[in-house]
Specification:
The protein has 2 domains: 1-127, no CATH class; 131-243, Ubiquitin Conjugating Enzyme. It is 40% helix and 19% strand. The protein is built from 8 helices and 8 strands; from the N terminus they run H-E-E-E-E-H-H-H-H-H-H-E-E-H-E-E. The strands form 2 sheets. It has a 4-stranded antiparallel β-sheet with strand order 1-2-3-4, with helices on one face. A hairpin with a 2-residue loop joins strand 2 (31-36) and strand 3 (39-44). The longest helix is centred in the middle third of the chain and has 18 residues, at 133-150. Residues 157-255 form the UBC core domain. Residues 92-111 are annotated as: Disordered.
């Protein structure tokens, strides 16, 4: 869809949802600006440079409420304007008030959609089986505790997403050959360990030889530095151990 089609769909949604206004459109940056009571936010539409929707607000309190919307939009599923705005409305409901109407879909359906697509880009089934209601409460409490632990370190949307990733990493417990955690109290720098490389591959064989020669684990250690714009901007990743041989044809030294 082009930007004008997204705009028309947004205008149609506005007509059915009292209190919401489409205050501005920016075709150059492909943005739709909205207002409901004192809350303002904008959507960047999928287009030339972005494959997914992006939601943001200049109001810090609103950004915190939009954390789950960011998770919802980060999956690979292509959402319609109506789906995005309905889910946003659901998450803003506690702040702006008002009763749900017949245009709102059931919240559980949205939550299921988030879980099913959370790691879809990596072909990882992050939700195996149905958790009990008690387990859901426990996991929610754990996320709240982590949110409080890292609160104030930066962009609330990035903090919320990294907390969710950290919880999922702990739950997986190395199941997918990846183990990682923040470095000390800094949520935006992670130390990550990659394991379980196939032994019949060149990398797997090299790591096995390295492990035997130096009495080390056959693993790769990474350092990941996340920007404040995460998850819309990717982290910087570098290999810290072991040192790999780069066949560039050049040698250089510093210092």
């Amino acid at each position: 869809m082009d930007f004008n089609s997204f705009k028309e769909d947004a205008e149609a949604w506005i007509r059915l949802n009292d209190g919401y206004e489409l205050t501005q459109t920016d075709e150059k940056d492909e943005r739709l600006y909205f207002k409901v009571k004192s809350v303002t936010f904008y959507l960047t539409c999928p287009g030339r440079e972005k494959k997914n929707w992006f939601i943001w607000s200049d109001q810090e309190d609103t950004i915190q409420m939009l954390g789950e919307v960011t998770d919802y939009l980060s999956g690979c599923k292509q959402h319609t304007v109506e789906e995005v705005l309905n889910y946003t409305k659901k998450k803003l409901q506690p702040s702006v008030g008002g009763a749900d109407d017949e245009n709102m879909e059931d919240e559980d359906e949205y939550e299921e959609d988030i879980d099913d697509n959370y790691y879809e880009d990596d072909d990882i089934d992050a939700c195996q089986g149905e958790a009990s209601a008690a387990n859901k409460v426990t996991l929610s409490d754990e996320e709240d505790e982590l949110d409080r632990q890292f609160m104030g370190q930066g962009n609330p949307v990035a903090v919320h997403r990294l907390v969710k990733d950290l919880k999922n990493m702990k739950d997986a417990n190395g199941k997918f050959g990846v183990v990682g955690e923040p470095r000390g109290d800094n949520l935006f720098i992670w130390d990550v360990k990659l394991t379980d490389f196939p032994k019949d591959t060149r990398l797997g064989k090299d790591l096995e030889n390295f492990a035997k020669q130096y009495n080390r684990e056959p693993v790769v250690y990474l350092e990941m530095k996340f920007p404040q714009e995460f998850p819309m901007h990717p982290p910087f990743v570098r290999v810290t151990r072991p040192r790999f041989k780069f066949l560039t044809g050049k040698q250089s030294s510093v210092g």
